[in-house]
Amino acid sequence: ITIYPSMTSDVLNVNGNIDCKYTITSLEGKTVKEGDFYNVNTIDVSKLAAGLYIVNFYNYNGTKTEKLIKE
What is the CA radius of gyration of the chain? Predict the structure, then answer.
């Protein structure tokens, strides 16, 4: 799983195995968005405050972590 662009103001695109769950966590450790990710390839991040976030994807293969910069 990869995300692009890693810096965005509205939509985060996801490429790869998309049958999973995800969480977006602030650097303070607070989960700010989470959900199931099935047959979709975007996540709306427009309502998040500007800053740096950690995006975790979970499925039967394990966990994938990516960084997100919200403009």
Answer: 11
Angle at 27 between CA 22 and CA 21, to 5 degrees: 5
Please say whether the beta carbons of 56 and 22 come within 8 A: yes
Percent of the chain past pLDDT 90, that is, above it, reads: 68
Q: Which of helix, strand or coil describes residue 30?
A: coil
* Separation between Cα atoms, residue 38 and residue 36, nearest integer Å: 6
Quote the strand ranges of 10-71, DSSP E.
Answer: 11-15, 20-26, 31-37, 42-44, 51-59, 62-70
Is residue 17's pLDDT more than 70? no
Closest to 22 in 3D by CA, of 33, 6, 11, 30: 33
- Length of the chain as a residue count: 71
